[in-house]
Model the fold of this input.
Amino acid sequence: MSGMRHSLKTVCVLCACALLVCACTSGAGANKDNTSDTAVSGDDMTSYDDVGFAMGTVVNQTIYSTDKNIAAEIVDLLTTIEKQRISWREEDSEVAAINRNALAVRGGAPTEISQETKGYLQTALEIAADSNGAFDPTMGQLTQLWDFDGGSEVVPDASRISSLLADVGYAHVHVEGDSATLAESSSIDLGAMGKGIGCDEVESYFDAKGDVAGALVNIGGSSVLTYGKKSTDEPWKVAVLNPRDEVDYLGALTLKGTNHVSSSGDYERYFELDGKRYHHILDPATGYPVDNGLMSVTVVGRHGAQCDALSTACFVLGWEQSLELLARYDAEAIFVTTDKQVQVTDGLKDSFQLLADGYTVL
Ligand code: ADP
Ligand code: MG
Done:
């Protein structure tokens, strides 16, 4: 049995998510948290919804603006970020160029990069260091070996895993001036923070445009931006996916103003063999899928790339070891274990509502 939430079924779930969000858009009043100085009032704005495709997944948007082109511009923006900067699969991307130069020249050759990509790499390296390598952006060769994205259902050879693991290490990435160098024959894979990077860039785009009062942008169900406010006083509602049910949600988050929400789970891409689940979040210490009794981690915070990388790091680290890391980034989280227990950090307890049967909030 295998799973990939980027399936048709998923499209239905995501559309349902959009409906959940839409169902919560009526009400009166205004919340001014975190909106930019130039943001227009949402009071006289009607919202519109859009479903598009970018970053290999479905992008659901609800936009409060008189400008009806924004949703399409966001899809284009996300596609450009993916193709020109962060996807290792795209030959012309900056990350692909860094990886090529690592493999072509012993010790790596510097690759010129944009200020944006430099910022993404710096965030990745910061979280890699702060998580003691639980999140590691140099896992590319291992993620390609497992090939969950390609639908592979084979456990790779142990000796191959350990030989690739030897070259993994965020300390091999050096960012200096306008260039980045990857010093070992590993590969950069920013897949664990790509959608969060997308959410950050969408937020900046809205800030710069100034005519978006509020928006909810949901990239693939696993990274969500709530921006500004609706035309009503009602807060945003963000669905938290149920790790074992593609239709019913685990719960809902009630959030005001601008927030980023990112989830990592053992349900996104996986296969089962001899009763064991092999999924796409790898432990950089072993090269194998994390097997620590967690099914999902959802992180809420102020920055998208941070939340996305943190959700992966926290999935690797587990509840106890994640708390200090989360506090350092002023982020909150929801952890869900395979025995259906839900742990919520203090700052999120009032915002999270459990909806699924069979789960217990500790
Ligand atoms: P999704 O992209 O499905 O929302 P994540 O944000 O958790 O899920 O990212 C998972 C992806 O990150 C994997 O498919 C892989 O490319 C990469 N990855 C897996 N394990 C790690 C890790 N420990 N550190 C950094 N990246 C990882
Ligand atoms: Mg992530």
About this structure: Residues 4-39 have pLDDT under 50 and may be disordered. The longest helix spans residues 304-328. The pocket of magnesium ion (ligand 2) is lined by residues 192-193, 262, 264, 308-309, 311-312 (CB under 6 Å).
